[in-house]
Amino acid sequence: MAENPAYPVGLRLTGRRVVVLGAGQVAQRRLPALIAAGADIHLVSPAATPSVEAMADAGELTWTRRPYEPGDLAEAWYALIATSDTEANTAASAEAEAHRVWCVRSDDADAATAWTPATGHSEGVTVAVLTTNAKGRDPRHTAAIRDAVVEGLRDGTLVAPHHRTRTPGVALVGGGPGDPDLITVRGRRLLAEADVVIADRLGPRDLLAELPPHVEVIDAAKIPYGRFMAQEAINNALIEHAKQGKAVVRLKGGDPYVYGRGMEEVQALAEAGIACTVVPGISSSISVPGAAGIPVTHRGVAHDFTVVSGHIAPDDERSLVDWAALAKLRGTLVILMGVDKIGAIARTLMDNGKLADTPVAVVQEGTTAAQRRVDATLATVAETVVAENVKPPAVIVIGEVVTVRPDSSSRASE
User: Fold this and answer.
1) Could you tell me the residue range of the domain that residue 97 belongs to?
2) What is the pTM of this model?
């Protein structure tokens, strides 16, 4: 005869007696949730883990330091039996049945009258997953389902449109280096809440395809700016849509405050009286080299790294970068937006003392399926970039860390 499925239910344990037998790893995992539920916890065990002892010392439960004895489950509403003594567990389980106490057994789920689900939480929602087939109970399976559901709630993919929460104003979201999986959980959730998304070319474009049909997606590069500078036009678009009461996301590549002009947008929104949320992102300056197997620091090789923009050439009077000082540093130099100016950058560094044979790596489309790495030296990088047809976006790494490989050790001691 097939077993009837378990009946899922929530228990209000506040102020109600809960008996826990055993104070090992199982109890250590289960007690915090019982404490959070406000249960009147009575623990019976001759010994306990340090964490459980700390709970008792903090007054979060009452601890009787002895083995189980008949009568321990009297007046209990709920029991967790988790000792290492099978005979004691069986006896306690029988007592629970006699007293009509719902009982969880850690050693024999089939002998229990209740089971602890795999639980997770996301913004006021509790997810609890139970396997209904007794013969197929697998905690790894239920935990995997729980994790998938919680992740969907957190990133917004499992929330129906009419149940969406809304973050007022504008959210500046750092989308990370390119791989859509590298955006933060909060950033992904805000995208799921959005009515309007204004996206940069360097943002994780694949995420835009997941948005519901009603979401208006605007390519920041295609906003007509007329007499305004392009950035001013973007600022105006953010303000205009936010004033219409829409949830607006400004999706950027990397981090909004690392060469993303994020503060300019924050200032414009503040001046217009628009609430703004900034969500940090993973900067390509560190993540892209890492994805290509390059550590920006490594013991005995480089203790520091410097990130600069190569957007403005070294000989341009608008440049704020002290290239002569950078040439004298021993650490790693990471250059963003510098592919088009790499020839002038390399010459300037060598003219100021950087060795011509300094290793260089250029990583194009880092963290995406199109990622590729091109290695050169400071003397050859300009011609290599042309010969290999390297195009933006690309991150340039200059320094000895370029030669470090997973199977090689540090070539110098700290």
Assistant:
1) 17-116
2) 0.70
The CB density around residue 248, as the number of other CB atoms within 10 Å, is: 30
275 and 289 part of one domain: no
Express each pLDDT in 198-249 by its tens digit.
998 888 888 888 888 889 999 887 666 666 568 999 999 999 999 999 999 9
Span 343-366, pLDDT tens digits: 999 999 999 999 999 999 999 999
pLDDT band at 96 (very low <50, low <70, confident <90, very high): very high
Peptide bond into 168 cis (omega under 30): no
Last residue of a domain, one of 94, 116, 138: 116
β-pair type (248-252, 394-398): unpaired
Single out the catalytic residue among 179, 200, 252, 341: 200
Active site residue 222: yes
320 near 311, Cβ under 8 Å? no
- Is residue 364 domain-resident? yes
Count the Cβ atoms, other than its own, within 10 Å of residue 87.
9
Nearest to 237 by CA among 218, 254, 212: 218
